[in-house]
């Protein structure tokens, strides 16, 4: 029987207080805040972060497949899985499957995983709602990852699932639309209740369970409060309903239902049953049972820890600039050239995998890759060396107010790694009051820039919190 072997999540550092939207437009807003991907983040970089936490302590050589679920990929025509594989240092021969265009693609990716092979499922989204609309308030950014497989290490068995497709124009974005759109909540609420109830009836009859036998129910559906209507209709009590994260993260698209599942697993005990209800053009309902193996899973960075690490001082104007909604004067310098495809191809291992070299004579790590050792001058005596995950500290830095960036000022630091190796890179998710010499940092995969339709990724440092 297949199930979950491990999980991880990522919620961006920046948060937008919804009352700042009210200050700008003078309209009523929902309570709380929403997670906002930085200008250098997208569905790919967030997916890499979530997968890193998921793969902690796992043997990736056994990985057979990678499933990526997103409704907001960086390209309309180009796979993102090779970028993920390189950044995560996964085997190059893993099977890749991308599931897109539906907010059910996250649960679909779980269901598509085979029981007889190890599959990494990544769900990540960064959707944009039109200014002053409900979607702008409700949509939040985030990513989650699950390692699926079978055997003694399964922490939650997938006991059964029920699927029902129904062609509903509820939430959509056409090829020509700038923003995601939604139909009226009153129409959607009725359709959701009818569809979910019918799907739930089939699953409950087949498995002979009642609402009282479920410990936690995860419900992802359109709107801000429809999940409560669904829970009441299905007969669940308030204490059984998993926190929707709408007041702290927002609706994270393809990742939303699975983010709530990860949060439920953080406090789950052996023997508990978790029901996942995910509605979009129909319903996916998944029934999990937690096993004794969950008590042996090492502590990992998932939902609760990310919720506690945040900057909730993001201005609404910065949010608009980061999303390209507010057009501002471009930097008074030439636009960046389109990255060279041959140069990118030659340096993928270095730039995406963050591999340098280590001298086999004196064991000095160095970045970028070298033929001649900077320490002992040995020539062509190098082996590949990956810097990701290594402890590092800022040795010196500069604050640049003139650099063209959507979030001035820009920070550039010289970072020294424990065990050797030095790199000069940008520092992100950091304020000028926070950055100091000796500050401990960790490397994070980010988008450097986009030029003429090509996205360029590299690694940046951020404070270790």
Assembly classification: single chain
**What is the first-to-last residue Cα distance?**
38 Å
> What summary fits the major beta sheet?
9 strands, mixed
Domains (count): 2
Helix segment tally:
12
CATH architecture classification of the largest domain: 3-Layer(aba) Sandwich
CATH topology description of the largest domain: Peroxisomal Thiolase, Chain A, domain 1
Please list the strands of the largest sheet in the order they lie side by side. 5-4-6-7-1-8-13-12-11
Total strand segments = 21
Strand-residue proportion: 25-35%
Spatial shape: globular
User: From the helix content, strand content and strand pairing, which structural class follows?
Assistant: alpha+beta
Could you tell me the radius of gyration in angstroms?
23 Å
CATH superfamily of the largest domain: Thiolase/Chalcone synthase
Q: Which CATH class of the largest domain?
A: Alpha Beta
Q: pLDDT under 50 segments (min length 5)?
A: none
Proportion in helices: 10-25%
Verbal overview:
The chain has 465 residues and is an alpha+beta fold. It has two domains: 3-322, 3-Layer(aba) Sandwich (Peroxisomal Thiolase, Chain A, domain 1); 341-463, OB fold (Dihydrolipoamide Acetyltransferase, E2P) (Beta Barrel), CATH 2.40.50. It is 23% helix and 30% strand. It has helices spanning 19-25, 43-54, 81-88, 105-112, 134-138, 185-207, 226-234, 256-266, 303-308, 316-322, 341-346, 348-351; strands at residues 3-10, 14-17, 33-36, 63-70, 95-100, 118-125, 142-149, 156-165, 171-172, 181-182, 216-220, 273-279, 282-290, 355-359, 365-366, 382-386, 392-400, 410-417, 422-427, 440-451, 454-463. The strands form five sheets. It has a nine-stranded mixed β-sheet, sandwiched between helices. A five-stranded antiparallel β-sheet has the order 19-18-17-20-21. The longest helix has 23 residues, at 185-207.
């Amino acid at each position: 029987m297949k199930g979950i072997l491990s999980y991880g999540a990522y919620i961006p550092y920046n948060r937008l207080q919804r009352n700042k939207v009210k200050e700008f437009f003078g309209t009523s807003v929902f309570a709380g805040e929403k997670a906002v991907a930085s200008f250098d983040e997208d569905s790919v970089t967030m997916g890499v972060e979530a997968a890193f936490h998921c793969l902690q302590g796992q043997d990736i050589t056994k990985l057979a497949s990678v499933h990526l679920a997103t409704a907001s990929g960086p390209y309309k025509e180009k796979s993102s899985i090779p970028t993920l594989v390189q950044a995560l240092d996964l085997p190059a021969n893993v099977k890749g499957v991308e599931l897109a265009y539906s907010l059910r693609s996250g649960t679909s990716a779980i269901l598509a995983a085979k029981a007889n092979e190890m599959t990494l499922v990544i769900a990540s989204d960064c959707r944009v709602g039109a200014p002053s609309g409900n979607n702008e308030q409700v949509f939040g950014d985030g990513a989650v990852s699950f390692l699926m497989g079978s055997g003694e290490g399964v922490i939650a068995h997938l006991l059964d699932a029920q699927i029902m497709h129904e062609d509903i124009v509820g939430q959509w974005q056409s090829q020509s639309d700038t923003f995601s759109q939604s139909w009226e909540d009153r129409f959607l609420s009725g359709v959701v209740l009818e569809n979910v109830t019918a799907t739930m009836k089939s699953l409950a009859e087949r498995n002979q369970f009642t609402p009282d036998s479920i410990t936690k129910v995860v419900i992802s559906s359109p709107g801000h409060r429809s999940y409560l209507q669904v829970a009441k209709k299905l007969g669940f009590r308030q204490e059984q309903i998993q926190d929707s994260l709408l007041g702290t993260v927002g609706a994270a698209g393809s990742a939303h239902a699975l983010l709530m599942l990860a949060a439920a697993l953080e406090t789950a005990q052996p023997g508990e049953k978790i029901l996942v209800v995910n509605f979009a053009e129909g319903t996916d309902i998944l029934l999990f049972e937690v096993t004794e193996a969950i008590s042996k899973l090492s502590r990992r960075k998932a939902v609760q820890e990310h919720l506690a690490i945040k900057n909730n001082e993001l201005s609404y104007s910065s949010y608009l600039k980061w999303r390209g909604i507010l057009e501002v004067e471009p930097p008074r310098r030439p636009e960046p050239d389109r990255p060279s495809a041959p140069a990118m191809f030659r340096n993928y291992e270095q730039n995406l995998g963050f591999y340098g070299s280590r001298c086999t004579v004196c064991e000095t790590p160095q970045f970028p890759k070298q033929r001649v050792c900077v320490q002992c001058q040995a020539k062509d005596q190098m082996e590949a060396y990956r810097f990701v995950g290594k402890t590092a500290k800022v040795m010196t830095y500069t604050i640049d107010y003139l650099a063209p960036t959507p979030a001035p000022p820009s920070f550039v630091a010289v970072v020294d790694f424990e065990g050797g190796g030095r790199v000069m890179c940008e520092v992100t998710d950091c304020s000028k009051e926070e950055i100091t010499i000796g500050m401990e940092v960790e490397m994070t995969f980010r988008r450097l820039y986009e030029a003429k339709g090509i996205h360029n990724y590299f690694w940046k440092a951020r404070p270790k919190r």
